[in-house]
Give the backbone structure.
Amino acid sequence: MNEDDVRDILQRLSAGDLAVEEALHELRFAPFLDLGEARFDVHREMRTGVPEAIYAPGKTTEAIVRLVEAAEARPLFITRAGREVYEAVSERADATYHERARLIVIGTATDRDGGRVAVVSAGTSDVPVAQEAAAVVDALGHRVERVHDVGVAGLHRLLAHRDTLAGAQVIIVAAGMDGVLPAVVASLFTAPVVALPTSVGYGTGMDGYAALLTMLNSCSPGIAVVNIDNGYGAGVFAHKMLTRMSGSQ
């Protein structure tokens, strides 16, 4: 249930086309739908500005399909999903699959005016995580510009995209290994930076912990850090900043 659904119920109630008890019955299910093994949050978008998300690992394909059916064509994200999940879901809903990002998007959120996000990846190995962030931002109604393979091993590559980065309102930077790139970007451009550590790197990279700690310890201010490989979280954070900037939430 989103704001339009609630507005429709209230308008029908005001017009006398809906009895109070009928309105209560429709609104009673606003908090969640109890599906037994899962509880689907049907008005998360109205409450937080972001649709419900399903984390696919650990769930059976059948359970995910039941959640999609419960969504009744509402906007929905399914993260870390394989192709077999997409094929099952696409039989029940209009879904888009971002294969490298392992992200399924069902429906689209309300378009918002303005708002441009640059999504930067340090190396090509970081691209799947960066693409998850970009796909989320795009699905939530913002413009996305992608800049790939501009890590600190060759900073001249980053500066070749300075006009794009200078024009962004939020910059998401995905980096593994030493994780230095977000600090560099934050030191050069005015936009807030969402640092997105990835699990890319050799042994002492510790599956992204080294990059995470570098980003948390950056001496360059203006950086917010999300969890390792959490492209979805980075995209949502960028979206929330943009909606606050525009005053649409």
Summary: The first helix runs from residue 3 to 14.
